[in-house]
């Protein structure tokens, strides 16, 4: 592919325009995966087309060369394939001015964050990339990477990179900076700020005082809620896109038509006109985050684990099973919805209807393994608060318990129970520890107790809620003994019985 310096002029056989590349970068982005390339890059492309500005993006991949090499070979472009049952539409966001691999050039990340031309650092490093302890929410200083980053040298962890870059910026230009987390973490702005601050506080005072003062006075960390379902790229998609384009694209990104971005408007040194791409600037981002992380992501986890255990390879295959759909509707309406405050202007019934259509998008082929991966860090964001809220009001959140039982059955199956290939393919930082528990445990109760209470996998508070832990244990046993359908039937019946007598909000 080749960019045309005159603007939106060069079209390929598929009628796809290649936008003009911005001359200079203003954004350094950490995490050059599919999500970033189908989300922030698309909004930035719209902002540049509408409003211009030096807001090109330098994309930093964490370890893998493949995207960086392909982007360089394709003049920094790639296509986004928007996929719905009605067909595939292509667009090309030309916003990246450069790309490199952090693992190969770690000092370049620090220098990039310190560069005064860079005014925003954006992050899509997944829930796993923040080096915090799920039990406490604070920086996990026991990990080898963080320990090495604290000792000095070019940092390898995201939090170390941010802290060292900010330290260097404080010591050089001292110009203001915005750090914008675009990951599915509650209060992702303050959370990221706190972890960077905790990293700096671990350093000797003489080394960190200026950086801490600069962090407090000149670096903003707005929260943001990001949403677009973006599966992994498959060889079939590469071929389809290349034939539509009439030119080979090695790194197209598949994405659903739906996209949403709600951002707190707190930028220390300006920002692109992302509203041109449909971004919402709001002072209710906390509400947007909770709505998304619980209703979409929390329910998504349930669909993924129950689906994988039922032999469904994709989310649409899973949600098209009537018992899983029933469980999804119940967890969403009965257990997640009461725990959130709906942002002003959002029609929650419409939002819910859209969720089921989005999950049912068969053309997208989003995999249960992908959503089930990294459950230990994802579920930590999705389940504790709604579960605690239900327990505090005297109700057992049966479907959240089933989500956890599904997760444990996938990652730490009871001896003799085979969770199947989709579960086996899920990767998770806690897999080894959970597998150790499962090897020596005899019952579901033991697995639940040792992971939820012992490892405090979902935080300190839920660790002490024995009725919840016991319920998860029972469901782990039911899954191993009678199968996942029996566990779904048990939980949905119990949830429905608990609300009997109240007006039903769940369509039959
Ligand atoms: C999913 C998300 O993988 C997961 O856990 O729930 O990646 C989800 O597809 C996105 O957050 C949608 O915006």
Main attributes?
six-stranded parallel sheet, N-(1-d-carboxylethyl)-l-norvaline Dehydrogenase, domain 2, 2 domains, binds D-mannonic acid, 508 residues, Rossmann fold, disordered N terminus, 14 strands
Number of domains: 2
Q: What share of the residues does DSSP label as strand, in percent?
A: 5-15%
Identify the strand order in the major beta sheet: 7-4-3-8-9-10
CATH class of the largest domain: Alpha Beta
CATH level-3 fold name of the largest domain: Rossmann fold
Query: From the alpha-carbon coordinates, what is the Rg to the nearest angstrom?
Result: 23 Å
The parts where pLDDT drops under 50 for at least 5 residues are 1-13
CATH architecture of the largest domain: 3-Layer(aba) Sandwich
Attached small molecules: D-mannonic acid
How would you name the CATH homologous superfamily of the largest domain? NAD(P)-binding Rossmann-like Domain
Mean pLDDT: 94
Query: What gross morphology would you assign?
Result: globular
SS content category: alpha/beta
Largest sheet: 6 strands, parallel
Proportion in helices: 40-55%
Oligomer status = single chain
Record field, number of beta strands: 14
């Amino acid at each position: 592919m080749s960019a045309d310096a005159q603007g939106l002029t060069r079209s390929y056989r598929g009628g796809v325009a290649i936008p003009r590349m911005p001359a200079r970068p203003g954004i350094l982005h950490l995490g050059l995966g599919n999500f970033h390339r189908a989300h922030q890059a698309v909004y930035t492309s719209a902002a540049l087309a509408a409003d211009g500005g030096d807001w090109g993006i330098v994309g930093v991949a964490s370890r893998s060369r493949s995207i960086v090499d392909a982007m360089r070979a394709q003049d920094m472009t790639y296509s986004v394939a928007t996929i719905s049952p009605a067909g595939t539409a292509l667009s090309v966001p030309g916003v990246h001015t450069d790309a490199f691999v952090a693992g190969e050039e770690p000092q370049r990340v620090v220098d990039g964050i310190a560069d005064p031309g860079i005014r925003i650092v954006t992050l899509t490093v997944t829930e796993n990339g923040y080096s915090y302890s799920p039990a406490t929410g604070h920086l996990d200083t026991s990990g080898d990477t963080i320990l090495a980053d604290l000792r000095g040298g070019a940092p390898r962890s995201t939090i170390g990179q941010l802290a060292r870059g900010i330290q260097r910026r404080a010591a050089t230009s001292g110009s203001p900076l915005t750090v914008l987390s675009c990951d599915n973490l509650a209060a992702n702005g303050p959370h990221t700020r706190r972890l960077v601050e905790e990293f700096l506080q671990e350093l000797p005072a003489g080394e960190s005082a200026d950086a801490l003062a600069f962090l407090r006075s000149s670096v903003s960390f707005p929260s943001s809620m990001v949403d677009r379902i973006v599966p992994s790229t498959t060889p079939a998609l590469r071929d389809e896109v290349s034939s539509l384009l009439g030119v080979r694209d090695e790194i197209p990104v598949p994405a659903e038509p739906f996209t949403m971005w709600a951002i707190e408007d707190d930028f220390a040194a300006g920002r692109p006109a992302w509203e041109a791409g449909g971004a919402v600037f709001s002072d209710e981002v906390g509400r947007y985050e909770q709505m998304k992380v619980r209703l979409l992501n929390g329910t998504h986890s349930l669909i993924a684990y129950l689906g994988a255990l039922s032999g469904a390879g994709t989310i649409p295959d899973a949600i098209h099973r009537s018992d899983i759909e029933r469980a999804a509707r119940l967890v969403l309406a009965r257990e997640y919805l009461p725990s959130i405050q709906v942002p002003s202007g959002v029609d929650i019934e419409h939002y819910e209807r859209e969720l089921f259509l989005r999950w049912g998008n068969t053309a997208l082929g989003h995999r249960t393994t992908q959503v089930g991966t990294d459950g230990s860090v994802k579920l930590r964001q999705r389940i504790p608060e709604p579960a605690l809220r239900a327990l505090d009001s005297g109700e057992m959140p049966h479907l959240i318990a089933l989500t956890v039982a599904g997760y444990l059955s996938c990652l730490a199956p009871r001896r003799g129970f085979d969770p199947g290939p989709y579960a086996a393919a899920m990767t998770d930082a806690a897999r080894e520890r959970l597998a150790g528990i499962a090897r020596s445990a005899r019952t579901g109760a033991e697995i639940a107790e040792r992971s939820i209470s012992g490892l405090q996998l979902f935080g300190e508070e839920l660790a002490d809620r024995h009725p919840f832990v016991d319920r998860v244990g029972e469901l782990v046993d039911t899954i191993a003994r009678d199968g996942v359908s029996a566990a779904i039937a048990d939980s949905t019946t119990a949830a429905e019985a608990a609300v009997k007598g109240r007006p039903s909000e769940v369509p039959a």
